[in-house]
Amino acid sequence: MSGNKNLHDAMKAKQDEFYTQKADIERELVHYKTHFKDKIVYCNCDDPKDGPNASEFWQFFVRNFNDWQLKKLIATHYEPDETTFSYKIETGPDKNGQFNMFNYTAKKRAIKSNGDFRSQPCVNLLKQADIIVTNPPFSLFREYVAQLMKYNKKFVIIGPRNAITYKEIFPLISSNKIWLGYGFKNSDAYFRIDEKNAAKYAAGVYNPETGFVHFRNCTWFTNLDINKRHEPIDLRGHYSYYENPERYPKYDNYNAIEVSKVDDIPYDYDGVMGVPITFMDKYCPEQFEIVGLDRYTVPREFLVGGRVAINGKPRYARILIRRRESTGG
Ligand SMILES: C[S@@+](CC[C@H](N)C(=O)[O-])C[C@H]1O[C@@H](n2cnc3c(N)ncnc32)[C@H](O)[C@@H]1O
Question: Does ligand 1 come within 6 angstroms of the Cβ of 189?
Fold first, then answer.
């Protein structure tokens, strides 16, 4: 079974218990450091206790609390059938104006909730926070993001790549309110799971030797500005549309050309192009405008299997894009 299929099954089965690795968190968050000075960080799906499932997000921010000059770190975790706790580390400059976080102790306080991110005690903590960082339950991803947007929070979170196409999420992407982070190495995400849940994953996806499951379809979502977002795709060395029109067929049901690989975006085409959703990894809003997503843009009566089509055959999901500046082509 593929990593993608497994992720889909995990979401359907509400299998939300998999844990992010230290190395993946470090690799992503290193790009965001400047945003964190004097900020209150809240990890709202994270168990900060010591133990096998202790959150690496919490531990990352504890380790970097001083260096990143955080103001406060908060975590809560979910216990479906019990009330739970919030954990907080607070500091500020000492009398010499220095941050002092040596021998920190996290204040543990009971909260009147099971730690559900939607519960009032957790919403109250969310309201205090500046930046939310976690890997939330994928089965609740839509609601999770809606809550962040409602309270106007900055965030760096992991989610299913396919969420790009969700009707609740795509408008946020196309209007540049949220975007993708740097992502997992080679798009391969390995998460630790509890051995007791191993049977819920297909053979070949859970590796009993490492204790990890492998998902190919996960990525990072954020609304914090990162350099990557302003790096245009280098189109030098790409094909010319006008010299190779046969490479770029027009859709039957929408006035745009099909570009089946991001690396094939022609350097000289100014009209609308349909590209795979992997484009979002390289999207630079100064270079391209997002016109829409096939199934939300093409009039319903023209869609073929919910998609743009060529010779009657639907393509995979396509993001419709257009260059911001004319190539003069
Ligand atoms: C994908 S796991 C990630 C755990 C941890 N954030 C990490 O990255 O290692 C999602 C976590 O969200 C928790 N969770 C599930 N439903 C929740 C809810 N309604 N509110 C808060 N947390 C929830 C699960 O118990 C699970 O530990």
Answer: no
Q: Are residues 264 and 209 in the same domain?
A: no
Token reading at 123: 């919403």
Q: Give nearest CA residue, ligand 1 atom 20.
A: 116
Domain contains 70:
yes
Residue 148 within any structural domain of the chain:
yes
C-alpha–C-alpha distance, residues 269 and 235, integer Å: 11
For 98, phi then psi, to 5°, come to -100, 145
Tell me the C-alpha distance between 173 and 289, whole Å.
11
Radius of gyration in angstroms for the set of CA atoms belonging to the chain, rounded to a whole number: 22
Q: Is residue 237 part of a domain?
A: no
Counting the structural domains of the chain, the total is 2
Q: Which of 44, 45, 111, 158 has most ligand 1 atoms within 8 Å of CB, for mutation?
A: 45
- Containing structural domain, residue 251: 245-323
Pocket lining: 215 vs ligand 1, CB cutoff 6 Å: no
Closest CA relative to residue 325, chosen from 274, 273, 268: 268
Ligand 1 proximity of 117 Cβ (cutoff 6 Å) = yes
pLDDT tens, residue order, the chain (329 aa): 455 666 666 555 567 889 999 999 999 999 999 999 999 999 999 998 777 678 999 999 999 988 998 999 999 999 999 999 999 988 755 666 665 665 567 889 999 999 999 999 999 999 999 999 999 999 999 999 999 999 999 999 999 999 999 999 999 999 999 999 999 998 899 999 988 888 888 777 899 889 999 998 899 999 999 999 999 999 999 999 999 999 999 999 999 999 999 999 999 999 999 999 999 999 999 999 999 999 999 999 999 999 999 999 999 999 999 999 888 76
Give the pTM: 0.93
Residue 57 lies in a domain: yes
